[in-house]
Amino acid sequence: MAGGKNRVRFSKLYTWAGCFRPQSPLERQQSMSVGGPGFSRVVFCNKSEMHLQKPYRYKSNYVSTTKYNAVTFLPKALFEQFRRVANMYFLLAAILALTPVSPYSAASLIAPLVFVVGVSMCKEALEDWRRFIQDNEINNRKVKIHVGGGKFEEREWKKVKVGDIVKVEKDNFFPADLLMLSSSFPDGVCYVETMNLDGETNLKLKKSLDRTYELDGDEEFEKFEGKIRCEDPNSSLYTFVGNLEYGGDVLPLGPQQILLRDSKLRNTPFIYGVVIFSGHETKVMQNATDPPSKRSRIERKMDKIIYLLFLVLLFISVVGSIAFAARTKFDMPNWWYLQPDNTTMYYDPNQAVLSGLLHLITALILYGYLIPISLYVSIELVKVLQARFINNDIQMYHRDTDQPARARTSNLNEELGQIDTILSDKTGTLTCNQMEFIKCSIAGTAYGRGVTEVEKATARRLGKDPRQLEDASITEDRESSSIGGEGSDVEMRPMSSNSHVKGYNLKDERLQDGNWMHQPNAEEIRMFLRILAVCHTAIPEVDDATGTITYEAESPDEASFVVAARELGFEFLKRNQNSVIVKEPGPNGVPMEREYKILNLLEFNSTRKRMSVVVKDESGQIILMCKGADSIIYDRLGRNGKQYWNATKAHLAKYGDAGLRTLAISYRVLEESEYEQWNATFTKAKTTIGSDRDELLDKASDLIERDLFLVGATAVEDKLQQGVPECIDRLAQAGLKIWVLTGDKQETAINIGFACSLLRQGMHQIIVGLETPEMRAIEENGDKNQIAKAARDSITSQIEAGNQQIKLDTEDDNPHALIIDGKSLMYALEDGLKQELLKLATQCASVICCRVSPKQKAMITKLVKEGTGKATLGIGDGANDVGMIQEADIGVGISGVEGMQAVMASDFSIAQFKFLERLLIVHGHWCYKRIALMIVYFFYKNITFGLTLFYYEAFTTFSGQTAYNDWYTSLFNVFFTSLPVIALGVFEQDVSSRVCLQFPALYQQGPKNMFFTWSRILGWMANGVYSSVVAFFFTTAAFEIEAYRNDGQLAGIEELGAAMYTCVVWVVNVQVAMALSYFTWIQHVFIWGSIALWYLFVVVYGSINPTLSTTAYKVFVETLVNSPMYWFITILVPIACVLPYAVYQGYQRMFHPMDHHLIQEIHYLQKHITDPDMYKQERTKAVQKTHQGFSSRVKASMTMQETKQRFYGDGHLQGTSEKNDSLPRHVDSLLESPLINGDKAPHNNFAFRV
């Protein structure tokens, strides 16, 4: 603590308005008086026991993200199971099985239902138990709590109560929403990282009240008391209204004193705080939504199929019952051998209607095998096994973090193959939260030959070696130097292989090792580096063990500037109360320490888009140093300050195209008198108390930030995660739309859009926002209703203008991009306008939403999901992404370095964004086709089996007699046909993973639902009807002409039922073999083993006592095995049943092939060699037309080059055709690489080894 007292007073360096997002006039209007509606919470500080009684009984700090608990599991899980129509039907059938009208024993119907429902409930319980374990890890974190007498003890988070005083130490998360009382620093300030809340990695400064920051020791809290009156729990992360009654005073509270749960204490040894909101009342949990119960589209459609089958079941049952009632009334009196005068009500001619109704119940149970009860449990088992394959996919394992992919719920595997729109967070999802200083422009000369990820991805797309880009950069630098006539005595030599410095990746010998002092523009370079070392708000921290200095900055960009200055000779050493110390080279090159006195700090904000610092050097010279957006700086350059503007502007355009974030660097030397006059104005504005303080500060700053001299510009790479550009490109080629929803400011979001190639040069940007002069003028009045009406009208007109612009640009090939901020979305997401917003967004190639709150992310996701009716995927890594992840049809969490909230709320988790490509294009494609084929086949085999029962009923005058032994029917879906269909669902693949990635457009078969359409479903059902007809009538016809016993008797129900059952088992198993595209030994064992199992069963079961085996007693060994006709129909019936399917498949492949059919031919028949035209055509179709990804950027760049050549080239009349075709032909040639057959692939974007 003593060390902390000697640290710099941060309040001398910062004005607090920049430490948090200021309230807008609208929000200030919404801040009502404490004690009114919505502001009734009372917290007794250091007296948590007061909150155990009403009306102050608040929620505990225990947090749960599970779907169930011990009380709700049974009712909720049963509801989940019996909202499936098939399970509800079999529940009714099981109840009816207890009555005399049932054709089966009760056990044979109840046991399968209990098994199916039990397995599914166990699976749900297991998945929810995993969520419970993860919740416990959070709830059992430790924090120090004041227990009385000035003593603090460690307790679990779940034991924290409202009113408790807690002590949070460095690099720990805050356990609840706290009012900050004091910190280890004497000014009562601390650094907070809010990445889990808003996605931002830059540190926020928080400050305690002046009356409480002296409470900086444990003993100070022995007698501390206070009362907080504040707003009720709400979801607003950026606002807080309340007051603290302490020491007889009432002190106003604002968001700068509030520390939110799941944010992290950084760069501060410890803080003290009192708990205001706990558990589910915290702001981060208020932004969360209850874990949804998600069902895939296929599963929902499957319910409709079961409804259809139930109607068929009801129809044939009614037909049979009417026929039975008619025969009972009119024919029963003539059947003397049935004793019609001595019968029961089930066969009474005098009560034929009653007999028909009772028969209807019997028929509904008898034909129940049309509806497959085992379908759900089979799908559950298949999905669990599919999830195991996802979990164990080594291609999605991240070695650095030891994180594999995880399917946290297996219910939605097939939904992975039907995604239409991806809604992604930015920070930590697309980026690594690392900025690297990679290039710069100084005095009109470009420095740095580093290659960005975007440039590398573009080079690979063009078939170039990215390493060659550095050589080209060297040549370009030499040429530019010779053309400019500025010689240099620095030899361009290969870079030494020094260890990488975090935040710095500049490679240029002209600047490094002090060589910049030999450059013709050495003084400009000196000033450039000096501005980087001085114009910032970073804090140096010295490692006592190693003596190395690290920097804690408010933004990663700022940290990279300071690191770059240090690496080039200007080392920022320390910061005193009102000055900074920099070690820099002197005139003779010898390092020396210089002190720069900080006179004023003009902070950055989204309106100013620049930051300045006024300093006085050791010679007494006053210098204004300024860095900011190039457009802002240009407007403030003096007449003599634009010397390097044209060259710098060209460099900035080049940097922007490479996906780099740029800032212009400038300065101005001030006269003493001019500064004194301006400082008086600035000081007056700074000390103003009122809503116009920020506006006065901006105006005062604008007075001095004039007549600047441009020195150069910086280019920083917002380091994307490895493989992000390639992944986005491949997803775009697969036809997926990608939206970015981020809490970052607009400029940052746009830069990342360019870095990821979601945006590119030439795109028409439609920016919807409220930062206009007209809106600012209205907000100054402060009238809440007027502001809201004006904002709503402004957003409406902007959206209408955007839609109109797209209509007018129909002939323009350049796509549109929509960029909208959270403040605008507050109105755009209202009921009357959200459909127009969606219409505009869906017409744009890219959509970027910035400064959005977690709840707005969820609202946008819901709008896209419900408005388009197509599947959405939300992906993020922080607690601020939980709402979006849960609202989307599929939620994917990034298991990043910080926090696991997104993972805990997700359906699938991966370690890096790049793995999303394989998760969707490979596993999603496979799972969709497997489940779709599995379901239609399941209905096929049950229709084939179930209708034979109906035909036999008709054959026996609808007597209610079943053709099969009870155990035949019970085991049909369990043993004799289940394993092949499970193998189909787990192992089937139409093409390999490598080919899926090589032909990404195949993924569109899922979003277009090509394998689960009604035509396909009804086609398989018709196939089942045909197979049942053949199986029944061929078998009955064969057995009518052959005697089986020595006395000449014909086959009875025992032989007919066993023979027909044999044919059905053969038919459905041969059919699944015909439907498969991919065989392993497992499929062979399961298919042919299931048939063999039937023969084994009928022999073993038939040898049991006839009281148990009944109609199966020795039916095979004594009669069937010796019958040639039995073996003949066993061969004939399967062939006759599958023949139409084989003919149809051959016809389709020959005359109307689907894409995967052609790719299979290419793969197995080497068509890329024998039929190159067909191969080239398929490769052209392999990617969807897209305006996202670096492939579209390359194509647009080619088009622009061709256009320039056509209009400006000297040979455009003679060589236009050749030049127009050369580049596209080069790219097309890359698409013709014979990768499918496994040959060694050339170096291009499609050469994946999966």
CATH class call of the largest domain? Alpha Beta
How far is it from the N-terminal to the C-terminal residue, by CA? 55 Å
Please give the oligomerization state of what you see: single chain
What is the fold named in CATH at topology level of the largest domain?
Answer: Calcium-transporting ATPase, cytoplasmic domain N
Task: Please state roughly what percent of the residues sit in beta strands, choosing from under 5%, 5-15%, 15-25%, 25-35%, 35-45% or over 45%.
Answer: 15-25%
Please, what is the CATH homologous superfamily of the largest domain? Calcium-transporting ATPase, cytoplasmic domain N
Q: What can you tell me about this protein's structure?
A:
The chain is α+β, with helices and mostly antiparallel strands and 1250 residues long. It has five domains: 128 residues, Calcium-transporting ATPase, cytoplasmic transduction domain A (Distorted Sandwich), CATH 2.70.150.10; 83 residues; 222 residues, HAD superfamily/HAD-like (Rossmann fold, 3-Layer(aba) Sandwich); 252 residues, Calcium-transporting ATPase, cytoplasmic domain N; 226 residues, no CATH class. It contains 42 helices and 33 strands. A nine-stranded mixed β-sheet has the order 14-33-32-31-15-27-30-29-28, sandwiched between helices. A nine-stranded antiparallel β-sheet has the order 17-16-26-25-24-23-22-21-20, sandwiched between helices. A hairpin with a 5-residue loop joins strand 23 and strand 24. The longest helix has 41 residues. The chain starts with a helix and ends in a 20-residue tail after the last helix.
